[in-house]
């Protein structure tokens, strides 16, 4: 159940650093090198105001020093002189991207590519397009960069984002993942992976390990802790391999004296594989997947006797180190096993069964009771809002007069990005005054956005995961449909194991019809009120929150795989 941003994780794996924007980071936002001789460059630029080279050097130095607005001001002066080269346009675009100004970054990168084709610039353009939900276009950019450069970072980008590409088929996803995995296995890093798992020792208790880079993130780890906290410690010995900083809290985890916590942040993949081997595990369960690409190399071969993919895996990994993948009958339908490099193991309940232990705002009345109109909404990340999603949401708004749409995510903190999205809706006949577009916030405050929604709308083909759970927990029913791939069935896997199964439509068209019917039915406001205020008690009694059943199902699976 992940809303991690794949583009963030490919950002550090560039093809070849653009001049002036690489090397050690002095500023966490800019990610650029410390400036040298800034004062001298400022004097030079003042003396030679029309010198393009002086202005370019000053802008680079200002950005490296964290003087972001000054840098963009200097670049504007340089642009006004005309004759900007392709590398300079690319450098400005890269700086805009790092400031999360994706629309402006795209304009600069397009100028660069119009002058000169460059795989690095094409790769960056793909990242910006992805951030704006143009996943098919982003995929085309990354493929072009990969084919032109044969760089592992570009192949990784293709493999990472393809499950969310509307045009991609299950076979396309499998091919992209196996292509990347083959190239990763041939890389020098993977070739150093010489660790061989020990044969399973005879013992009464299963020894199960979990490897993750995100154990300190309570909102992402709800399924993890639902499973781990409910393991039968008389039958299971738990090992946690955590890439979080040593001493970091793990909210949601209920410590047990018999559990072993391994701090792995300072270990490379070879050392981590050796630590896993030394723990003498029976089963290793990975919950990173492509959200932590730097750990994928560890699974070019198996570091434990049985290695299973789970939680953040919603498609084939392509990696030979995984023996199986944990799903359910909703996520992976019978007959779809050929689309996976792993053996598919289906649990009898949602593979994302969860518990909520973090602080959350109380459930509020639906806003339609006082507003007199329905407000739809979504807090999913921007890269899930594809053109097809905008088409769908706009059709619903057109068919429900007076309705509104609330969207909030980090990408929309930028005014340019907001204007761009508003224009996408305007092109489909939806006026700006029917949209509320906002940025991110601290988690507790962010959850408060659900107080302003009557009904949540799911994204596709890459559903919400974290946002699906949060909408339900805050009392807001989520409308989704049975998609054409695992990534498009994540929400269905969750909702089908609750009392809200009627909110899972069989198709996109049926979801639109359901949204319109609900929004126009006179009894809906009172019905939503009753649903909201009974939601948490109903969820905690539903299979989707039965962590004990989840733990027993996974334990039974592990015993079968270990032939116990």
TrEMBL record:
O-GlcNAc transferase C-terminal domain location is 201-351, 374-542
TPR repeat segments: 86-119
Which controlled-vocabulary keywords does the entry list?
Answer: Glycosyltransferase, Repeat, TPR repeat, Transferase
Q: Is Glycosyltransferase one of the keywords? A: yes
Query: What InterPro entries does this protein map onto?
Result: Glycosyltr_41/O-GlcNAc_trsf (IPR051939), OGT/SEC/SPY_C (IPR029489), TPR-like_helical_dom_sf (IPR011990), TPR_rpt (IPR019734)
The answer on whether this UniProt entry bears the keyword Transferase reads yes
* A Pfam family per the record: TPR_19
Question: Can you provide one Gene Ontology molecular function annotated for this UniProt record?
Answer: protein O-acetylglucosaminyltransferase activity
- What pathway does the UniProt record associate with this protein? Protein modification; protein glycosylation
Record-listed E.C. numbers: 2.4.1.255
Provide the family line: Belongs to the glycosyltransferase 41 family. O-GlcNAc transferase subfamily.
In Swiss-Prot or TrEMBL terms, this protein is called protein O-GlcNAc transferase
